[in-house]
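Priority: medium. Attachment 1 of 2:
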């Protein structure tokens, strides 16, 4: 008999306890994991599309090739604090993305596979963070968390640019993580300022002080949208300021180490040119203040061609929910800030694409409560019309080429694949034209397929004009044979990583300097980018190829000097 004080144990066999219950626990954990993943179909669709698209062609110059070249030169210099480009210290970007590339290279060796897979993983993390932020901002509207990742993942520009090995996707992850730390979660209204400091610090190490432009306004305007900030204003601002300062210490630690290694010239470039210089030029307005406004419908394709989306946004009315106020406090000031800065690029707004998706998802969810179906004109007929027109144009392009109405070289190349791709776009248009349920998901999937198809068509037809792999291999062979090399005008590392070059390429400015260098290095090679090819280019250049509407030509130094003496080079 057992004592009443002793616990009743069904099975006293230790081996049975150790073998049965852990197995059951493992099975339960796997079931939970599978249930979680099955609840995120948007993640699987996006991952498949991204992995297909990112391996359709090689690294894109000048975007991906420059980042990879900086990582490669740091690797060859055994310098993991001070970045390098073309043999000189590189002051344009902090090193967090480069460190992540190096981590993969430490495991699998140097190559471009890991950087691409890494970008896909960072993009997937961005969608997960968008879903998490949606649950925090709109806990009473679960539809927002279900639809916002579909929208964020299907933005055509964000999807295609996110395939570049660049800093914006990593920065977007840091921005979303920082905002997530400021938002209340079930059972806790107070922000997680320690994690906020870490997210800010990582963002600063991703792309520098611009991180503060993305996150400072939601923090400064916290009492507008955060109840805890309304009640605890002093603690909100004091702890937030301390967190931002602590995050800045991460960047400062790298800056001190990098400037100590780079010397006084690097210190001047990093601290004066990259910081104070950009602030001074911030109001020069190289582009007009309103430049981003007409660009927004392009950046938000394909959903900007969905009338239901515009109808939903037009019906937003006060009083705004706290989550919506957060989006306004984030997106509005950031757009104004980037509009005020002189230098403008579409991808500067990439960290805000998650916010755009949340805004659209909320508007659609709110509208759905009052008008579940809506009139027929709300359906995505403009997008279907665009895809159908593009499909017909591609299908008919071959006939236009054969009849002599189209003679452009690139369009002639496209016409070789016009019929199959045209039929694909027509099928996608038909999928949108037939009224069915899950309209948003259909638009997202169609948008992703169309983006992957367009990227594939670009690869089959136009990519050879962008592919620097052949010239990089030629330059690598020349370097191995001891030939010095010089580049006329711009050199952004477009062939350094592709050719695994270990020596800098001399930068030449002006035809006179190029001629002197060629005379002093008779066994050298001169890389030029003429606007048009001359007869001498075609007969004497060692290598030529089209590139972004101009040409690339590699000249043996003696031939370059003779051609310049005859005045037959296009500078």
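Attachment 2 of 2:
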């Amino acid at each position: 008999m057992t004592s009443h004080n002793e616990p009743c144990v069904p099975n006293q066999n230790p081996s049975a306890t150790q073998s049965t219950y852990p197995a059951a626990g493992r099975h339960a954990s796997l079931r939970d994991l599978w249930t979680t993943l099955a609840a995120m179909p948007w993640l699987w669709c996006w991952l498949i599309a991204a992995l297909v698209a990112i391996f359709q062609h090689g690294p894109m110059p000048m975007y991906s090739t420059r980042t990879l070249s900086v990582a490669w030169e740091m690797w060859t210099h055994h310098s993991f604090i001070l970045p390098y480009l073309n043999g000189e210290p590189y002051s344009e970007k902090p090193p967090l993305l480069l460190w992540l590339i190096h981590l993969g290279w430490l495991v699998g060796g140097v190559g471009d596979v890991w950087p691409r897979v890494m970008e896909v993983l960072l993009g997937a993390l961005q969608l997960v963070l968008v879903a998490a932020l949606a649950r925090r901002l709109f806990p009473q509207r679960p539809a927002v968390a279900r639809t916002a990742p579909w929208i964020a993942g299907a933005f055509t520009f964000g999807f295609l640019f996110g395939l570049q090995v660049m800093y914006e996707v990593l920065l977007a992850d840091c921005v979303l993580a920082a905002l997530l730390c400021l938002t209340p979660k079930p059972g806790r209204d107070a922000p997680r300022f320690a994690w906020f400091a870490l997210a800010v610090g990582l963002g600063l190490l991703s792309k520098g002080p611009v991180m503060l432009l993305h996150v400072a306004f939601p923090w400064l305007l916290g009492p507008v949208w955060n109840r805890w900030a309304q009640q605890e204003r002093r603690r909100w601002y004091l702890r937030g300021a301390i967190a931002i300062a602590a995050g800045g210490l991460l960047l400062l630690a790298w800056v001190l180490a990098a400037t100590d290694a780079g010397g006084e010239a690097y210190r001047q470039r990093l601290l004066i040119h990259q910081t104070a210089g950009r602030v001074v030029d911030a109001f020069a307005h190289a582009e007009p203040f309103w430049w981003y406004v007409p660009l927004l419908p392009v950046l938000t394709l394909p959903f900007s061609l969905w009338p239901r989306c515009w109808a939903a946004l037009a019906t937003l009315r006060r009083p705004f929910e706290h989550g919506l106020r957060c989006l306004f406090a984030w997106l509005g000031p950031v757009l104004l800030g980037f509009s005020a800065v002189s230098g403008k690029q579409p991808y500067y707004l990439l960290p805000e694409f998650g916010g755009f998706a949340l805004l659209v998802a909320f508007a659609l969810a709110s509208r759905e409560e009052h008008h579940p179906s809506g009139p027929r004109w709300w359906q995505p007929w403009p997008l279907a019309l665009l895809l159908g027109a593009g499909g017909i144009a591609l299908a008919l392009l071959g006939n236009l080429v054969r009849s002599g109405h189209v003679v452009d070289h690139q369009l002639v190349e496209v016409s070789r694949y016009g019929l199959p791709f045209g039929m694909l776009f027509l099928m996608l248009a038909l999928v949108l034209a037939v009224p069915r349920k899950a309209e948003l998901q259909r638009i997202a999937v169609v948008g992703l397929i169309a983006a992957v198809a367009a990227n594939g068509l670009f690869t089959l037809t136009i990519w050879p004009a962008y592919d620097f792999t052949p010239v990089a291999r030629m330059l690598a062979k020349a370097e191995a044979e001891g030939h010095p090399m010089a580049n006329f005008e711009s050199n952004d590392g477009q062939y350094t990583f592709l050719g695994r070059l270990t020596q800098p390429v001399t930068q030449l400015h002006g035809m006179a300097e190029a001629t002197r260098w060629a005379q002093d290095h008779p066994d050298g090679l001169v890389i030029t980018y003429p606007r048009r090819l001359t007869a001498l280019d075609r007969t004497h250049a060692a290598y030529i190829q089209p590139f972004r509407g101009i040409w690339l030509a590699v000249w043996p130094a003696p031939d370059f000097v003779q051609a310049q003496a005859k005045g037959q080079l296009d500078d």
